[in-house]
Design goal:
The protein is of the alpha/beta class. The protein has 13 helices and 19 strands. It has helices at residues 4-13, 38-50, 92-100, 110-113, 137-155, 158-173, 189-195, 206-212, 217-232, 240-248, 262-271, 396-402, 449-467; strands at 28-34, 57-61, 72-75, 78-81, 105-106, 117-120, 125-128, 256-257, 274-278, 282-287, 292-296, 301-309, 319-321, 331-343, 359-362, 372-380, 383-390, 403-418, 436-438. Bound molecules: flavin-adenine dinucleotide (FAD). Flavin-adenine dinucleotide (FAD) is lined by residues 34-40, 60-63, 68-70, 83-87, 281-282, 310-311, 316, 318, 334, 336, 414, 416-417, 440, 447-450, 452.
């Protein structure tokens, strides 16, 4: 068991002299966090929660704003989520953050909740739900029923198995919210996944998993492929776990934070007494015996007893001395293109814009240059805001074919999430045998806001238990050092 006092003593014993020179470490900092996304901000939150006396937390963010892949885009004066947009109803850390920070929960946009879906193969719609503009609830109910039956008719009972597959995975994931008394601290991703019965799903592709469960090939090739392409820009050859998480993100009752999910990161950082360095990119991390020297591109250097990398290392240019070793992996780039204008129905072989679905998904085909198009907002019958995802940047020439009106276009190239594979190989949480940590090692299990928060919560406990000289793995019986019970979800 660790206590606040024990942790404080450990931290004091690590204190080193400071120097004010620009090229010498400026001051001694207990924990330095690189990255202000949901992983870095929740780590700061959980460190304060479990050890309120942790002396100083410094956070470095290379961009002028916090939030990382939780970011908004403003197009024609209106703001929309540009990266991570939706949360699952059982994303309990995100829900707790939202309530704790007095943020407002918002339902999904029309396209995210609507049943108006079309599956496009580059030439024709393979499947299209019936759409209705009727506001009458009874009409809506019957249309929704008809659409469910049409889907059932096309994909058979496998469609029902899809829910079960997702529910089992979500239920296993809920183990990460169990009380700290019964939940071990994990020093590697593999053990963390094995404990929740999720590891096996990372050893097979989603396709292998679903074929094994006797899902209909048509369901896998069409609807399920549409979902993995929307959520991870990849085919059903992603790992079974990333696939299940992706399918969970296509269910009902999805939500987001009104005004932008990034506010969770901002609020957590504000509440956690963090010294935030915006527009300061860490270029090197050197183990100098008793501490880490972090150098930034601004010419500053900082001495940190504990350093946590809270961003994917895959495309990071930061130099580590001594070098670190992690499995080589690629990030999947997703190009998000936002257009204010009007789709061209003729491009899709239709007569009227009103015949187009609010969410247009695609199957795997070399002919297709985009993965999905969704309506973010209908301003009026001839004026919409759309979001397109693609694996490559969409040229103006192509956009001019897809759209009949294009008043404004914004493109964002995201180093979005891991390029998933199976069997998945995981980077370590601990990058050396001292205090250099990597939260985003967990991202190769699945990349979501909630999985980042769950990994950060474990990391806070891992850091504190190691400072207290404890064995992390299998360390049942740890106790929180605060009585902060309002952070627990209602089922605890
Ligand atoms: C297009 C898109 C759609 C998505 N949709 C969803 C969704 O609907 N739901 C969902 O849950 N998840 C979604 N995700 C995934 C989700 O965004 C991520 O899993 C999550 O936000 C990762 O958070 P993070 O804190 O781990 O990393 P990031 O958010 O990437 O944070 C890392 C931060 O570190 C900073 N940084 C990097 N290097 C340095 C350096 N050397 N020095 C200083 N700062 C540095 C970066 O600028 C960044 O701000 C989506 C992602 C994308 C790209």
């Amino acid at each position: 068991m660790f206590t606040a006092t024990l942790i404080t003593l450990s931290l004091l014993s690590l204190t080193i002299p400071s120097s004010s020179s620009d090229h010498q470490p400026q001051s001694t900092t207990d924990v330095c966090i690189i990255g202000s996304g949901i992983a870095g901000s929740s780590l700061a939150h959980f460190l304060r929660k479990y050890s309120p006396t942790t002396a100083q937390i410094r956070m470095f963010e290379r961009h002028p704003v916090v939030g990382g892949r939780m970011a908004t885009v403003t197009i024609a004066g209106e703001t929309f989520e540009a990266g991570a947009s939706i949360l699952h109803p059982k994303n309990y850390h995100a829900l707790n953050f939202t309530h704790m920070l007095n943020l407002k929960v918002k339902g999904p946009s029309a396209s995210e909740s609507s049943f108006s879906l079309g599956i496009w193969d580059g030439q024709k719609f393979l499947f299209k739900t019936i759409d209705s503009n009727s506001k009458n609830q009874i009409v809506q109910y019957f249309i929704s029923l008809a659409n469910s039956l049409r889907m059932l008719f096309r994909y058979g009972v496998s469609l029902l198995k899809m829910n079960t597959f997702v529910e089992v995975t979500v239920d296993n994931f809920l183990k990460y919210y169990e009380s700290e008394e019964s939940r071990p601290i994990f020093s590697n991703v593999e053990d963390m996944l094995k404990w929740a019965d999720l590891y096996n799903l990372t050893t097979h592709t989603l396709e292998e998993e679903l074929v094994g469960l006797k899902f209909s090939p048509l369901l896998i090739q069409e609807l399920i492929t549409v979902i993995t392409r929307i959520n991870y820009g990849q085919s059903v050859r992603i790992s079974g776990l990333a696939g299940a998480v992706s399918l969970a993100g296509s269910g009902g009752d999805l939500w987001s934070v009104e005004g932008g999910n990034w506010q969770m990161a901002a609020g957590l950082i504000n509440q956690s007494d963090v010294t935030l360095h915006l527009q300061e990119e860490i270029s090197s991390i050197t183990n100098v015996g008793g501490f880490y020297e972090l150098k930034s591109t601004n010419g500053n250097s900082y001495a940190c007893q504990i350093t946590v990398v809270a961003t994917p290392l895959d495309e990071l240019t930061t130099q580590f001395t001594p070098e670190i070793s992690i499995p080589e992996r690629k990030l999947q780039h997703t190009y998000a293109t936002f257009v204010r204008g009007l789709l061209n129905p003729a491009y899709f072989g239709l007569n009227s814009v009103s015949d187009l679905p609010e969410l247009l998904g695609t199957i795997e085909s070399s002919e297709l240059q985009f993965t999905c198009i969704s309506v973010l907002k209908e301003h009026n019958a001839n004026d919409f805001t759309y979001k397109l995802f693609s694996r490559q940047s969409l040229t103006d020439a192509l956009l001019d074919q897809i759209f009949s009106i294009r008043n404004e276009t914004i493109r964002i190239n995201w180093g979005a999430y891991p390029h998933y594979q199976a069997p998945e190989e995981f980077a370590p949480f601990m990058l050396d045998d001292r205090h250099l940590y990597y939260v985003n090692a967990f991202e190769n299990a699945a990349s979501t806001m909630e999985t980042s928060a769950v990994a950060a919560e474990n990391m806070a406990r891992l850091i504190l238990s190691r400072l207290a000289g404890q064995q992390p793995l299998g360390s049942y019986g740890l106790k929180s050092s605060t009585s902060d019970s309002n952070l627990q979800h209602p089922e605890l």
